[in-house]
Write a structure and sequence with these properties.
This protein has twelve helices and 22 strands. The chain is of the alpha/beta class. α2 (49-65) packs across α4 (186-197).
């Protein structure tokens, strides 16, 4: 045990996102240091999943207003008051961040907040970036990830007001007329939906031949086709050069064309915030992707140091970070009865239009791994509510083990995909065969949940 001094703590937590939830009242008799170099509350609260969905919801309303006519409802989008939408979002988000910071400073006397860039300088010894170096019996690394910037010629010379990542794009002063989005993953898909639904012209430049490539191939192909009907989608295309031109930003693309836009959103992925923590001074190892190596209990390669969230996994999902935080919390409190993290049946969703949700194996992965499987597909429009919606494009698919009926993976594309997939996540998590799960409960008729029911019943019953 390190001798106790004013700068020695029982626990030090680096990062105020999911890591901040660890030090609850059960740690009230411990001295805790909380270290944060950015805005208090982490990515999800300030620049990630929460504010983005607060933009997505009005985008859904705006897009829906354009499509009432085919059902006999004459609606249209009049205009979007961007400053009001932005201020509604951050008028709620910013006080939560400030309130959390204030509570840690004033409301938890056993916690000391250090606001600076933390770096390890030795074994469980951290330079807080504030002029104070601390030591701790236990250290938790929960520093998250950050957006990457591709090596595009001219990108670093453009005004900051014109080039953005997901960290800054939501605080624009006004709605741009034209947006170039570089990338084709979930960030690109969601912001294309937001800006496109609000009336901006959206161009997507994507290096690969499909959007949302990580999804099941059928889902990716269908989403790409839907995107091409809404936005200017340039596949197998990269941005070779950016420059200011006649008051706009001119993008030179690899297909030899140019696009003039007002704003560029870089959405080319995220990397773990592990590369500038001085991990080498503390015996903490990382893998080839820069992710901190942890065992099933979230322990790093250094004694007494734990890691969780985006800095220690490849999921980059808030619900995974929260789960890992709960495991670390338990293990800190019960060192003789360690819990393991569970990374099976981890779901994800893309809140674009169409919405996408997935869990488990894709068919591509099942084939590559030689996993025996059967597949069922279900069109939304073949259920009563989907028929009422006159939905001809949305669908779901599920993979299952032909011998046991256990679900291997599921993939949805369409309205409420993130909700419709949840029963399947439950069945996978609790090991229930598809037919047993579907037949063992009532499904409200004619709710859209019948898409999930019929999807499962479309699998062969191995009994």
């Amino acid at each position: 045990m390190t001798p106790r001094t004013d700068t020695h703590y029982d626990l030090a937590i680096i990062g105020s996102g999911s890591g901040n939830s660890i030090a609850d009242e059960r740690f009230g008799d411990q001295r805790v240091a909380l270290l944060e170099k950015g805005v208090f509350g982490g990515t999800c609260l300030n620049v990630g999943c929460i504010p983005t969905k607060m933009f997505v919801y009005p985008a859904d309303l705006a897009l829906g207003a354009e499509h009432g006519d085919r059902l006999g409802v004459e609606t249209r989008l009049e205009r979007v008051r961007w400053p009001e939408i932005r201020d509604r979002v951050f008028g709620r988000i910013d006080p939560i961040s400030a309130g959390g910071r204030h509570w840690r400073i004033e409301g938890t006397p056993n916690v000391t907040l250090y606001e600076g860039h933390a770096r390890f300088v030795g074994e469980r010894t951290v330079d807080t970036g504030t002029g104070t170096t601390i030591t701790a019996d236990q250290v938790v690394i929960a520093t998250g990830s950050r957006a990457t910037m591709p090596p595009v010629v001219g990108l670093d010379t453009l005004p900051e007001s014109r080039v953005h990542t997901s960290d800054t794009i939501m605080r624009l002063d006004s709605l741009p007329d034209r947006v170039l989005i570089i990338g084709g993953g979930f960030v690109a898909a969601e912001f294309a939906h937001v800006f496109g639904s609000f009336g901006a012209g959206v161009t997507i430049a994507n290096r690969s031949g499909a959007l949302l490539r990580a999804e099941d191939d059928d889902i990716s192909a269908a989403f790409t086709a839907a995107a091409q009907s809404r936005w200017d989608v340039r596949l197998d295309t990269h941005v070779s050069r950016l420059e200011e031109h006649s008051g706009a930003i001119r993008a030179h693309l690899s297909d030899t064309s140019t696009v003039d836009v007002d704003v560029v959103l870089v959405a080319t992925g995220r990397v773990p915030n592990a590369d500038d923590l001085g991990l080498e001074h503390a015996g903490i190892r990382i893998d080839a992707t820069g992710t901190i190596l942890v065992d099933e209990h979230q322990r790093t390669t250094a004694d007494g140091v734990w890691a969780l969230g985006d800095v220690a996994n490849s999921f980059q999902l808030k619900h995974v970070a929260n789960h890992e935080a709960r495991v670390v919390q338990h293990n800190l409190l019960h060192p003789d009865h360690l819990e393991s993290t569970r990374h099976t049946a981890v779901p994800s969703a893309v809140f674009s239009s169409p919405q996408v949700a997935s869990v488990g194996l894709t068919e591509r992965e099942a084939l590559a791994q030689g996993v025996r499987h059967v597949v069922s597909r279900q069109q939304y429009g073949d259920t009563a509510y989907g028929w009422a919606m006159e939905d001809t494009a949305s669908f779901a698919k599920v993979l299952a083990d032909p011998d046991t009926g256990l679900i291997l993976g599921a993939h949805f594309l369409g309205p409420q995909a993130s909700n419709l997939i949840q029963p399947i996540i439950a069945a996978m998590s609790f090991g229930q065969p598809a037919h047993e799960f579907a037949r063992g409960q009532y499904w409200i008729h004619p709710a859209l949940a019948e898409v999930t029911e019929n999807l499962l019943l479309g699998l062969p019953d191995p009994r």
